[in-house]
Amino acid sequence: MPELPEVESIRRGLETLLLDQPVIRRFEFARKDLRDPIPVRQLRSLEGQAIRAVLRRSKYLFLAAETGGVLSHLGMTGSWRTATDPKVLPGPHDHVRIEFETGLTLIYRDPRRFGVLDWAKDLTSAHPRLDLLGPEPFDPAFSPEYLHQKARTHRSPIKNLLMNAKIVVGVGNIYASEILFRAGVRPGRSSERVTAVEAARIKAFTTEVLAESIAAGGSSISDYVDASGDQGGFQNHFRVYDRAGKPCLACGTPIRRDVHAGRSSFFCPRCQR
Ligand SMILES: [Zn+2]
User: Fold this and answer.
1) Catalytic residues, which ones?
2) Residue 138 belongs to a domain
3) N or C: which end of the chain has fewer CB within 10 A?
4) Tens of pLDDT along 77-113?
């Protein structure tokens, strides 16, 4: 499943591809629903309009046209591809095509159909998919004080808090373990017992880990049309994730695995308190 760094890499790829602000000639829908119904009429209203920007909010991509734009979420298996790519043949899972006046065609492919295609006016107006999302990890609103305040009032394991999109978007399971290792805080620690200093460390390492991952993912999946979400290079940087029983890179103590909210957490019992 693509996480925020992969989605950001895909956004950058699409941005490069759509840099000349091509005009949408037409949409073609092979089906009218994915996880939810596709608002076909609203999307068709964008025909004849230029793409002005390619934006991201959490794991949603937004192709901003003039009176609105295409909001997409890749779900488990979604991808954007170009029809001009000779490696990509039309397939049974190509659900939506966007043809541009320039000759470019974008295809939304999604075998498991957990993805979303929707219309939105922009990324700031009220929208049911966006209204409950917390701040972006790189937004100044995600400050140490903000995180500490949320931690004191939520009383859940700190890892669950970090993965809660209403608190901050984009921290997936792998990243949560890596962030908390660098911050020296155990994933199972009750969030109300996280100090202001620790909250500041967690905030700083959230930004650092996600930025490193974007940098690693951006290089290997710059050809975004092949993006499957697992081709980034960040897996080579894991310090605790999926390393249960192996020695901690800092102190040599075997890494431990615990389960929080049904997801595996990895931590060093000596480096993390
Ligand atoms: Zn250690």
Assistant:
1) 2-3, 59, 263
2) no
3) C
4) 899 988 876 666 678 899 999 999 999 999 999 999 9
